[in-house]
Structure formats: structure tokens, C-alpha cells
Design brief:
single chain; alpha/beta; 6-stranded mixed β-sheet; elongated
Length: about 130
Amino acid sequence: MIYIGKDPQQILWDMVKDLRTQIPIYKETMHEEAKDTPNSYMLLRSKISNGTKTRGDGKSLIKLADCDIHLVSKGYADDTTDLHNINIKLISKHLDNQEIDYMDFNLGYNEEFKSTEHTFSLGVEYIGE
């Protein structure tokens, strides 16, 4: 699908906003103090790379932005009943129901931040302003 009149960040938000009552969602960065960090949350990262998909008469008609829906959860994800894996399934099902193409990657446990991470990478085609 090619989106018209919306920035990739807004497009990502529209894709997942219905999940915000189940999983907190942040755009690009999360500003909470460590003690206030949710147990599991999504971080929307847009325009990780951003370029031209289709040109016409020397100008960009359609742009392609690589974006991530990044899931971060406190603690270990060592069984299928924990919050992290439940949220992975919730996000996957939500994207599948909208027929959004994505690749997902288990980034594993981050010892420094004491969190487990998973990302859903997708391309957003849009007509820039």
C-alpha cells in the first residue's frame, strides 16, 4: 500500500495504535525514568533508512522508508508464557490481520539494560510532501 499525505512515523502509529491499551507505545524514544519503565513496551522507529522508490521527471514520486516496531520487555524471555512472548504474538497477529508485510527478528537479551528485545521490520511506501 502506498500512503499519501502522512509521514512514516504517523503511518506506523496508525498501524499499531489499537494495541496501546495493551502495550504502551513510544515514538522514537522513551523518556521514562528507569523506575517508571513499563514491563513491556513498543518503540516506533521510522526512517531508519529513507530513499526513493519511484522517480518521475527527475523528482521523487514515491519514497520508501525502512521502519521498526521494536518490542522491549524487562527480564528474561525463557518460556512461552511470559509477557514478552505474549506481546510478540499480539503484535504479529495485529500486523497479519492488517495484511502488513514484515520481517521479525529476535534480538535476544540485552544484559546492559536487563531487557529482552524483538523487532518487526517493514517498509513503508509513501508519497512525500
